[in-house]
Amino acid sequence: MSELLRAEGITKKYGSFTALDNVSMSAEEGEFVCLLGPSGCGKTTLLRIIAGLENATEGKIYIGGEDATKLHPSKRNFGIVFQSYALFPNLKVWQNIDFGLKCKKVPKAEREERIAEVLDLVNITDHKDKYPSQLSGGQQQRVAIARALALSPKFLLLDEPLSALDAKVRQKVRVELKNLQNKLGITTIMVTHDQEEALTMADKIVVMNNACIKQIGTPNEVYDHPDSPFVADFIGSINMFTTNYNEDNDDPNRFKIKAIRPENIEVLPNTAPEGVKVKVINIEFHGATYRLTLRLREDSAVTLMDNDITVDVPTSVFTEYDIKQGGHIKVKFNDSRMIYYNTDKEQPVLV
Ligand SMILES: Nc1ncnc2c1ncn2[C@@H]1O[C@H](COP(=O)(O)OP(=O)(O)OP(=O)(O)O)[C@@H](O)[C@H]1O
Ligand SMILES: [Mg+2]
User: Fold this and answer.
1) Is any ligand 1 atom within 6 A of the Cβ of residue 50?
2) For a surface tag, which of 104, 138, 217, 318 has the fewest beta carbons within 10 Å of its beta carbon?
3) SS3 of 176, please?
4) Looking at the CA of 50, which ligand is closest?
5) Which of 45, 48, 158 to mutate for ligand 1's pocket (most ligand atoms within 8 Å of CB)?
6) What is the pLDDT of residue 301?
7) Cα of 70 to ligand 1 centre, how many Å?
């Protein structure tokens, strides 16, 4: 794979406010990259700078190895889809797709062929003569994707394209979009603040927070080996314990954080000879599983500041162990899956 896109040392300031602080990332040819992070962290700003819709205060954008920092958006050869579908309400579906082709002065016969092709690609041919207001949210977003693909762009930029859809439709369009991207092999950068979306769709996730990149890796890498408590907490669920001493160097100014994902905590019946006894504080029914909030007891070796943990148990186990609110069970930590972080006492953990 060769590199198609690169953002290098991008800083963006709005007056004295820094929206992006020396951010670097890249996308290989055919790669699906997700920019993931909480609201306001700078995802859209980075996407718009890659598109050329916004100028960086510092840093460079490379497309296909060429410096494209000063290149006009129309010369960058991308398709873009926004959160709100941004279709022209007064144009029919096919006319919405035709619009960009017309602007590019594509000959009529070729336009017709291209429209038919992309309508078919996103499965919306039957609705081609409707107006956007006559379509569901999912259908409108498919049209927006078709429109972005019509000009056979070199890469796709998607800014939270699924977030306006309700949960069920969102999942369906997510699968469709991923399949489409796979089939076309088109390099894609998608902004999302939904970690599940990033984990299921991306080849590479760029995790952002507070104008900075916190980690770049495959979904497996960022899930199994999060570099920081922030990434551990933002992607998937995790239990974190802050110990007030450091096992390695006894530095009183350093915290040690232990983190473990719920699936790495085994639940045992109260009668088990091994494990740590815990009290069941809360029970939530999740269909195939129950999510338990458990209160750990004081441990002689470690003072736990964060005394509650969350685990998921299958319904069968829940029934078998006769788990009740206020009752006791035992848990066993899979120590080999425990993640450790050192952090300064003064520094907030989740930054
Ligand atoms: N034109 C602007 N002028 C001033 N500040 C801006 C401007 N555009 C964005 N910002 C600020 O830059 C920061 C990053 O904005 P951005 O839209 O990139 O966030 P985001 O990660 O896309 O968030 P969300 O998930 O809510 O869409 C925000 O604090 C925002 O208020
Ligand atoms: Mg945004």
Assistant:
1) no
2) 104
3) helix
4) 1
5) 45
6) 46
7) 22
Q: Is 264 helix (H, G, I), strand (E, B) or coil?
A: helix
Q: Is the pLDDT of residue 339 over 60?
A: yes
pLDDT in tens, 70-87: 999 989 999 999 877 689
Query: 239-243 and 78-81 as β-strands: parallel, antiparallel, unpaired?
Result: unpaired
Q: How confident is the model at residue 189 (pLDDT cuts 50, 70, 90)?
A: very high
The answer to whether residues 123 and 135 touch, using CB atoms and an 8 Å cutoff, is: no
pLDDT(269) > 80: yes
Residue 35, ligand 1, Cβ within 6 A: no
Q: What pLDDT does residue 165 have?
A: 80
What does the pLDDT read at residue 109? 93
- Give the CATH architecture of domain 3-230: 3-Layer(aba) Sandwich (3.40)
Query: Is the separation of the CB atoms in 280 and 273 below 8 Å?
Result: no
pLDDT at 201 over 60: yes
Of the listed ranges 16-25, 105-114, 305-314, 323-332, the one predicted with least confidence:
305-314
Q: Residue 101 — pLDDT band, cuts 50, 70, 90?
A: very high
Q: How far is the centre of ligand 1, averaged over its atoms, from the C-alpha of 20 (Å)?
A: 9
Question: Which ligand 1 atom sits closest to the C-alpha of 208?
Answer: 21
- CB of 295 within 8 A of CB of 306? no
Q: Which CATH class is domain 237-344?
A: mainly beta
> Is residue 168 within 6 Å of ligand 1 at its C-beta?
no
Atom from ligand 1 closest to the CA of residue 41 = 21
Q: Could you identify the atom of ligand 1 that is nearest to the CA of residue 45?
A: 18
pTM of the model as a whole: 0.89
Fill in the amino acid letter for 2.
S
Spatial separation of the C-alpha atoms in residues 275 and 266, rounded to whole Å: 9
| Ligand 1 pocket, residue 12 CB under 6 Å | no
For the chain, which residues make up each domain, given as ranges? 3-230, 237-344
Contact 136, 85 (CB under 8 A): no
